[in-house]
Amino acid sequence: MKKSIFIGLLLVWGAPLTSVAEGLFSISDLSYEGATRISLGTYGDSRIAYTEGTFTVSEARNSIYVVGHSQHQAIAEFTLPKLSGSRQLADLPIAQNRQPFVTFLDRMPTGNPDNINRITGLRYSDQKLIVNGIQYYDGEGNNTDTTFVIEDASALSKSPVTGFLKLEARAHAAGWMTDLPPTYRDLFEGDMIFGYASNYAINSRSSMGPSAFGVSLKRVLDSQPGDTIPAFPLIDYSIDNPIAEDLYNKSGQNDLWTEVSAAYIGFVVPETDTYAVFGTSGGHNSGIGYKITQDNGHLCGGPCPYEAADVYNYYWFFDINEMAAVARGERRPYEVRPYEYGEIKLPFQEQSSVPKTIVGASFSSESNRLYLMLNRADQIQSRYESAPVILAYSLGLGSRPKPPSLIQTQ
């Protein structure tokens, strides 16, 4: 790994920070605002313990919509309390339940023929919730259903549901959904970015690195069950053209993306030329094995680092001008590479030898605020199970110059 640099409450390894061009965002522009916990109680069909982390923040409702226990895949609404900057877990406020957990995957007008059983993306828009999902183990890689819409996010238990819909890019795009600034909408053929990565098994059905597709929000909301939604590729990888070679890091030289890397949010940083992605990575120091016994005695069910502690929170920053070159047909979606990437250390992650890692994220373009969910970081509400902690960061853009307009629309 490369040298470390302290930046506020972040500790960063990876590509150098000194060569970032004017108009591009750098990790040093991220500022910690505070954190909140989530109540561990059972509400309706689930509870927050053992969540896989998918959530979205609606600042308009002052709410957090979140998926509960991984076995239930139910969605609930919690309040978004005033954040605390304290470094003591006990001082953090606790988000209280506003609407209990409700299951939706068995309520589709189309049924669920693809056995979609993992919710991988949430987006609040105009009093609706857009939901992306995949099948946990799509061995044949032939699932086409990806998306549904909860028509009334204020009444989860009673709301009509529209779905399943079919993203043209399938699992390659069936994760996060974030706003696309007006500057890029014509060229990128959408007003939103949909993206995902190889967060689950079966590499052949996934983008082997963080993806980005232009998608029309209106097209999503106006679609009927069974409709296919166009997804315009801007960044996309495959098993034949991954973001990085040597995914098991046998060489010991891969510090970009490995077989255990995952991404949970991708968004265009307002007033910059940066597409920012946050997630996790591992195996950059010790390498990766398949179904091995790690140094702490843990037997892995699939790929994992030889050293259990060789996992970290990670980020990747891409130049939108390279995405624009893809949109104009001047380069291919798998040729885009990040200009800056590396490890970040977050508050409350160091509670054991194995760091607490990001399992979900949400970005608000209205407030320029990034929310990250740390898995099982709250271990004081109960002696029997743990809950996540949500961290908030602002994007320190105040004195940065606006980038020159390098996007060509013709």
Provide a descriptive summary of the structure in words.
- The chain is mainly beta.
- It has a single domain (5-395), classed as Tachylectin-2, Chain A (5 Propeller).
- The protein is built from three helices and 28 strands.
- The strands form seven sheets. The chain has a six-stranded antiparallel beta sheet with strand order 1-2-25-24-21-20. Strands 9-3-28-27-26 form a five-stranded mixed beta sheet, with no helix packed on it. A five-stranded mixed beta sheet has the order 11-12-13-14-18.
- 51% of the residues are buried.
Instruction: Output mean pLDDT.
Output: 92
Rg, rounded, reads 20 Å
According to CATH, what is the class? Mainly Beta
The biggest beta sheet is recorded as:
6 strands, antiparallel
State the gist of this model.
This protein is mainly beta and 410 residues long. 4% of the residues lie in helices and 37% in strands.
